[in-house]
Every structure is written in C-alpha cells, then in structure tokens.
Design goal:
about 325 residues; alpha/beta; Quinone Oxidoreductase, Chain A, domain 1; Rossmann fold; 2 domains; six-stranded parallel beta sheet; 15 strands
Length: about 325
C-alpha cells in the first residue's frame, strides 16, 4: 500500500477558558513526515483521549509540557509501522506510542513498544493493559498502600482507571469495594458486572451522605479521580490511618477562578491520614509486574473491561469533550 503525501491531524487552535469547545481544535491536512535514522512512520489505528490532556491545553508549568498552539496534540495511540529505519522494528509491526491525534506519526523507535495483537485487541493496550491499567494497579498497591481486608472507595469508578481499581482491590482481598459514578446505568455496571460491593450515583444527594450509607464503618483506602466534594466526603469517612491515592480531580479541571478545597482538612491530622498524589510514570518499575499479574487475570477472565469507541479522527475533539462530561463507560477510544 502506497503511503499518501498528506494525512489528517488535530491541532490545538486556542487555549480554552473553562470548558473546552470544538473551536479550540483544528482539523487539518498535514504533510506526512519522512522518518530519519532510528525512527518509524506509523499509520495509527486507534488513539486514546484522557482527562490529563485537559491540563496540557493550559499554558502552565506542570509535570508534562503543555500542548503547543498550532501544532498537533499528543496522546497514546496504537498503529502499524509502514516505514522502519530501525533494525528492531519491521513493516507491519503493531506499536504503542505517544503520537496520537493524527493519521501518520513519525516516532522515535526507542519511544515505541511492540504489542501483540494475539494477546488482546489493539485498544486494550491503551486501556486495561496500558497507561490506565498501570495507573490503577500502581496507584492502588503502591500509592494507596492497599492491604488485604481493606475497605476501598473509588470515585469515577466507571471510567478506565476506576473500573480497574475496584476489580484489582477485590482480587487482592478487599473486604468491601465501593464506587461512585454519574448515572444509574453506571452504578448497575459497577455492581452487576464488575463485582463492586456497593455503588451510588453522586447526583442523588450529598456525597458524604451517600458514602456514609455505603460504608457505615468507614473506609481504609480512597482512590480519587474526582476531587472536590468526593475528596471531602472521603476524608470524613476515613478510618484512623486511612490511605488516599490521589490520581485526578476531574471535577475541577474546567473551573474558572479560585478552586475550593475540602473544608474538613483538619481531620487529616486527627486521623493520621496519608494523602499521596501520584503520576503513573513514577511507577514505571512496576510495569513488568503489572503485565504479568493483570495480563494473567485478563487471560483467565477475572478482569472485565468496557470501551466507549468513537469512529473517525475528525470526531476525536468531540470524544474528548464527552469524556470530560462523563459520557464514557470504561476507556474512551477513537478509531482512525
């Protein structure tokens, strides 16, 4: 198959103020790059949209550089090598890399990872066996210091990360796993399909009251994807010595002006709580352990996952906006 001279890519047109809109993105035809020595040209098949990308749209200093105006965005993708200038890769290899948001990506070979399509579908390497999976695994076990018998609360529990946190906790011997989500359909999914012991729709009332009902004896571990009211409720429900793995705060990503924190932070002192914010790249050393254990559970049918798939690169911006509003169940993917 002949590689075309141009391909579609999504660029950041402007920086959003508050909630992003479609006007913040441009869909353009760009020249397909020529790979240099040690590089690959990859035809992307599927890409990821993730909440952390919202932070990269702001021109602020963070743990990862911001997206550049007028240039293609970046993110996880799986694609097929169409040109290889590295002996470690052959044309036809399927690779995981960070050159998403475009049809054709020039990728440094050292930044690409071969994936086995016989092990799982391509999209799984962006979800259950990818960055969200490692985030869930390392966040619960390392940042959250999970112990057998713990009562675990997960916010944003029907998303790509949260849905795995709950299942891993159950497989590791949690005494009770509780999740929050934004619809009754998602609540049913958590309990009936993923095996959570309890779940609630956070729109049904004050989170503190809903959590107290679901965990009357308190919680040992909180895995936070939401922040805000959920974090305050978890502090209130925490047992002495409780451990919090702070992964994200999607409820605040699009707020304008001053952000408000939990009003009960004094309880952190009295209860001796351990609140640990983390970024998944801190736990790269756990990748092999993660693949072995979670890959094994997946092969044995002990892990269940869903994907919300949107077709077409042109629809990636809308998929991203929908993700921020909680329209997905499980991993949000865009096929290209």
């Amino acid at each position: 198959m002949t590689t075309p001279s141009t391909g579609l890519e999504i660029r950041l047109a402007s920086r959003p103020e508050g909630w992003p809109t479609l006007d913040n993105f441009d869909l353009v035809q760009a020249e397909v790059p020529t790979p240099d020595e040690g590089e690959l040209l990859v035809r992307n098949k599927v890409m990821s949209v993730d909440p952390y990308m919202r932070g990269r749209m702001n021109d602020v200093k963070s743990y990862v550089p911001p997206f550049e105006l007028g240039k293609a965005l970046q993110g996880g993708a799986v694609g097929e090598v169409v040109t290889s200038n590295d002996p470690g890769f052959a044309v036809g290899d399927l690779v995981l890399h960070m050159g998403g948001w475009r049809e054709y990506a020039k990728v440094e070979a050292k930044q690409a990872v071969k994936v086995d399509a016989n092990l799982a579908p391509a999209g799984a390497f962006l979800g259950v066996l990818g960055m969200p999976g490692l985030t869930a695994y390392a966040g619960l076990l390392a940042a959250g210091q999970f112990r057998e018998g713990d009562v675990v609360f997960v916010s944003g529990a029907a998303g790509a990360v949260g849905s795995l946190v709950g299942q891993i906790a159950k497989l590791k011997g949690a005494s009770r796993v509780i999740g929050s989500a934004g619809s009754q359909e998602k609540v049913d999914y958590l309990v009936n399909e993923l095996g959570f012991d309890a779940a609630f729709n956070y729109k049904d009332g004050p989170v503190a009251e809903l959590l107290a009902k679901a965990a009357p004896e308190g919680i040992d571990v909180y895995f936070d994807n939401v922040g805000g009211e959920h974090l305050e409720a978890a502090i209130g429900a925490a047992k002495q010595g409780g451990r919090f793995a702070l992964c994200g705060a999607i409820s605040q990503y699009n707020e304008k002006g001053e952000r408000t924190g939990p009003r009960n932070m004094i309880e952190i002192v009295g209860k001796g709580l351990n609140l640990r914010g983390f970024i998944v790249k801190e736990y790269g050393s756990m990748q092999e352990q993660f693949f072995t254990e979670v890959g094994g559970w997946l092969a044995e049918g002990k892990i269940s996952y869903r994907e919300t798939t949107v077709e077409g690169l042109a629809n990636a911006p809308q998929a991203f906006l929908d993700l921020l509003k909680g329209a997905n169940t499980g991993k949000m993917l865009v096929t290209i």
